[in-house]
Amino acid sequence: MTYALIDANNFYVSxxxxxxxxxxxxxxxxxxxxxxxxxxxxxxxxALGIKMADPWFKVKHxxxxxxxxxxxxNFELYxxxxxxxxxxxxxxxxxxxxxxxxxxxxxxxxIRGDLVERGFKLRSRILQWVGVPCCIGIGETKTLxxxxxxxxxxxxxxxxxxxxxxxxxxxxxxxxxxxxxYLFARTEVNDIWGIGRQIxxxxxxxxxxxxxxxxxxxxxxxxxxxxxxxxRTHRELHGxxxxxxxxxxxxRQEIACxxxxxxxxxxxxxxxxxxxxxATTAAQKIRKxxxxxxxxMVFIRTSPFRKHDEQYSRAITIPLRRPTADTHYxxxxxxxxxxxxxxxxxxxxxxxxxxxxxxSTATSQGELDLDNDPQDRTTLMTAMDTLNDxxxxxxxxxxxxxxxxxxxxxxxxxxxxxxxxxxxxxxIVRA
DNA sequence: TCTGGGGTCCTAGGACCC
DNA sequence: TCTGGGGTCCTAGGACCC
Length: 431
Description:
The chain has a domain at 255-361 and 376-401: Dna Ligase, domain 1 (2-Layer Sandwich), CATH 3.30.1490. With 431 residues, it is an alpha+beta fold. Strands 5-6-1-7-8 form a 5-stranded mixed sheet. A 4-stranded antiparallel sheet has the order 9-12-10-11, with helices on one face. α7 links the parallel β7 and β8. The protein is built from 14 helices and 12 strands. It binds a DNA duplex (18 and 18 nucleotides) through α3, α9, α11, β9 and β12. This is Y-family DNA polymerase. Residues 3-196 form the UmuC domain. It holds the Pfam family IMS. One of its GO terms (molecular function) is damaged DNA binding. Keywords: DNA damage, DNA repair, SOS mutagenesis, SOS response.
């Protein structure tokens, strides 16, 4: 097999730069909800030592010292840009898996010709048509394609880390065993797709520091220590394809809406409003997917970062009497759950609603649904979704869900002027 | 003062059944 | 006194991903 991974560089930052060329060459971060954490960093921001998920208040001093710019995220825009890139990328091979908002795997098996040259052409096409720089990694398995992509990106960003000719597009599948050994010995074990913080710490303790060290472990030892998932990763690094390309991912098995609050929340009324809103959003999401939920989970928690606060974290799952996608029903169930877990006297920092056990029909398994459920209501809900899609979120809602605006505070003012250009207004350059 | 929001899969352990 | 064993289902928690 031969796979490619095409990955946009610093995607959210690159997407913002399309419309604001003045952001080019300066340190930029894109911030999460409440402008809380850095979720994307430009190369210049990475060079300042800013890490993924660093809180804004800890890095904003770079604003005065180095001109760091913090932008509130604009996920609708990123979704549009992502679709554009994915449709161009699809032409690179016969099959595509859209893996995340900024990544696609492409099956290149059996494609003749110089894959690196084709990769560079694809890359410049995306840059020219959309304006986002990408890197491409190619390998015999998805894990190796990921690793190749890491090498392509790192050798561009940190000259000298790897041979220069591997920058931007890196094909591991045509390298000799010696060349690969050389690269794997210079790559840290935690850069492997599937090896996260915990496992890489355990590996370090066993003096396994590089990809090469890890590959030299026996499969059986890897399996015994870390289970079948990590063993699969180990096999993939050795060139045995275990993770298949998934062109049409199954519908989501669970859908959630959770938020951190802009400031601590203590009273039940405010929490009820928040939970109603989350339930409403989550219900919209499952209707969009055409699913019904049969169980939901509500949670509330204090902030683990406020060390002097008394900590409290609880979740409850509520079985539903029948599969449903009805906002009102879901919100009521969520509120009933909330009332069971709420305790007075804590500073709540985060809450959420998860809809679980999603299924594609409104009928319980093996049961004829004679209940008065509510084709009518579903139709009403769908009409509501259409209006909200067309005229903006929150145009219309369910009064009984208890949604009132402005009491619980989530989104602060944007730190930079609101971004107004819509995708349709964007200049399109054709080659 | 201020610390994201989604998802997936696997495993261990308890309850229950025969 | 001696107190089975295997299968299934469920849940919680832990690990990973972006």
